[in-house]
Design goal:
By secondary structure, the chain is α/β, with parallel strands linked by helices. The chain is built from 8 helices and 7 strands. Helix 5 runs antiparallel to helix 6 and helix 5 runs parallel beside helix 7. The protein is globular.
Length: 202
C-alpha cells in the first residue's frame, strides 16, 4: 500500500482527472461520429491505454486531430457539450477548450506544430490514416506512423524546451507492446525521410 498521505492524494487526483478525461472523450467521440467528422485521437489519449492503469499515464489534455474545414463545427459541438473556448483561430495550429478548468481538449489542425524542420514531412502521416473500424469516422495511424509521430513530438520538445521521463517511458512501453510487429524497414525509411533517424537512434 501507499503510506505517504501526499502520494495518496496525488494518486486520487490522477484517478479523478483520468476518469473525467475518459468520460468527456467518449462524449466527444460520439458527437464527432454523429456529425460525420473524421478525427484522429493523438498522443496521451492513445498511449494511456497501453499502461496497466490509464491513470498511471497522466495527461494535461486530450489531443484530437480534425481537418481545419471542420473546426467551426467542432467548436459548436464543444460549446454544446458545455466546454468553454479558451482559444480558437484558423491561423493557429490548435484550438483549446476546457471543462471546469480540469479537462482540457486541444483540437489540432496539424499533427505537428510547424516549428521544426521535420514537421512538414511528418504531417504527411495524416494522408495515411485509416478508419478505426468499418463505417467509423474515427481514424488511426499505423503502428509505424504513431511511433514516427511520437518521435517527432519528442524531438520538438527536445529542441525547444526539453522533456522529462514520461516521454521515455511512453516510447519504452510502446516498443514493448508493438516493437516486434513494427515494419522496421518502413519505419526506418520514414524516420530518415523526416530527418529523425539519428534522434530516434540516440
Amino acid at each position: 500500500g501507499i503510506s505517504n498521505p501526499e502520494m495518496v492524494i496525488d494518486v486520487c487526483l490522477y484517478i479523478a482527472v483520468d476518469a473525467k478525461q475518459k468520460f468527456y472523450l467518449d462524449k466527444i467521440r460520439k458527437r464527432l461520429e454523429e456529425e460525420k467528422i473524421h478525427f484522429v485521437c493523438m498522443k496521451g489519449a492513445v498511449l494511456k491505454e497501453l499502461y496497466s492503469e490509464t491513470f498511471m499515464r497522466s495527461s494535461s489534455d486530450i489531443d484530437i486531430f480534425v481537418d481545419d474545414e471542420n473546426t467551426d463545427k467542432v467548436r459548436d459541438i464543444m460549446t454544446d457539450l458545455g466546454f468553454e473556448t479558451e482559444r480558437f483561430s484558423h491561423q493557429i495550429q490548435d484550438d483549446v477548450y476546457s471543462m471546469g478548468k480540469i479537462v482540457y481538449v486541444e483540437i489540432h489542425r496539424k499533427l505537428m506544430s510547424g516549428k521544426c524542420p521535420w514537421d512538414k514531412k511528418c504531417q504527411e502521416i495524416i494522408k495515411r490514416v485509416t478508419p478505426k473500424a468499418e463505417g467509423t469516422y474515427e481514424c488511426v495511424m499505423s503502428a509505424e506512423d504513431f511511433y514516427l509521430h511520437m518521435i517527432g513530438h519528442m524531438a520538438k520538445h527536445m529542441k525547444h524546451a526539453g522533456f522529462g521521463i514520461r516521454m521515455i517511458i511512453d516510447a519504452w512501453i510502446y516498443l514493448n507492446r508493438f516493437g516486434d510487429s513494427l515494419d522496421r524497414e518502413i519505419l526506418d525509411k520514414r524516420l530518415k525521410y523526416c530527418g529523425l533517424d539519428v534522434f530516434e537512434n540516440e
